[in-house]
Amino acid sequence: MGSTERNEFVESMVGYLLDTRSTEVLQLMLSEEEAWKQLVEEAGLSREEEVLLREALAEIVPDPDVQDEEDKMERDEEDDLHDAHSETTVDSDVDDEDDLQEKESFLKVYPQVKRELEESIRKLQALADKIDKVHRDCTITQVVASSTGAVSGVLTILGIALAPVSAGFSLGLSATGLGLGAAAAVTSVSTTIVEKVSTASVEAEASQLLPRSNDTENDIKSNNTEKVIKDVLEKNTPRLISASKNSFRNLEGMKKNIDAIKLTKASPRLANNAKRLMTTRKVSARNTRQVKKAFGGTALAMTKRARIMGAATAGLTLVLDVVSLIQESNHLQEGAKAESAEKLRQQAQELEQKLQELIRVYDSLTQ
């Protein structure tokens, strides 16, 4: 059978079968061997014709098993798409519901949070101003103390230097210098303690306004504040005690100078013996003992070497007071801003940034 004849045969047989048989019947004939043999016998097909017809029908009529599998895959794909769409829809609905709840919660607490932030910012700025005021007042006090100390040094030096010349005037200068020195020393140390304790207390109050993770952290801050105050007192108490002792000695010296002034007025002859002892040293042993007993602890009873040492010590103290005075005065002219106050202002600025961010979120939700 030639190729043309084969093609014509296949076309005619396939057309006939498609016209006379349904697709289901053809599928059955292809899948059932008995049905196919019956068709071959009825049509009187040769082996070659049988093969050609079977191949042609197989291309036209789908295999029921393959078709069922394809249909099943299509159905599975449709089910998967449907399930995915359903899950997406459910998730979207859940997310929308969560977003709505978060929005409502934010809008509910927003007024209170905003008010608390504004209050904290205001209080932090007020506390910073308070620290600056304490620091400025203490700086002014330190300037006064340094000035007083410098004046005390000058008067002490003059009192020692003028002792051989004018006993009464010298004693008056020395008494005034000792009194001023006593006041300056105690004032300086006391001012330092007051400023540090006040600053620690304000910082403790400020810590209550800042966000904290839990109450334990708050307790730690409180304990740290108490520790700071305790350390300040422990470190400066010895200085205060020492300054108090020196001041007490100065006051005793001042009293001796005042008593000596009264004595020079009551006994000019004794005052003249004291001058000769300081200048020429030509005084009897008896008069020397009287002078030392009457004017002991004052410049009138000092040797030349003792007066020089006393003036040198007073001069060194004077230099230190002048240096301190210059430093404190410059700091005062620059505004006398405390470092701790600057830190509080930075913290207030950080809270201000958080407040602005909170306001932006609120505006975006309410627009």
TrEMBL record:
Protein name as it appears in the record: Apolipoprotein L3-like
Species the sequence originates in: Microtus ochrogaster (Prairie vole)
Biological classification of the source: Eukaryota, Metazoa, Chordata, Craniata, Vertebrata
Region (Disordered): 60-98
Keywords assigned by UniProt, alphabetized: Coiled coil
Recorded name of the encoding gene: LOC106143710
KW Coiled coil (keyword) present: yes
Ranges of Acidic residues composition bias in the record: 65-81
Coiled coil location: 110-137, 334-361
Protein family: Belongs to the apolipoprotein L family.
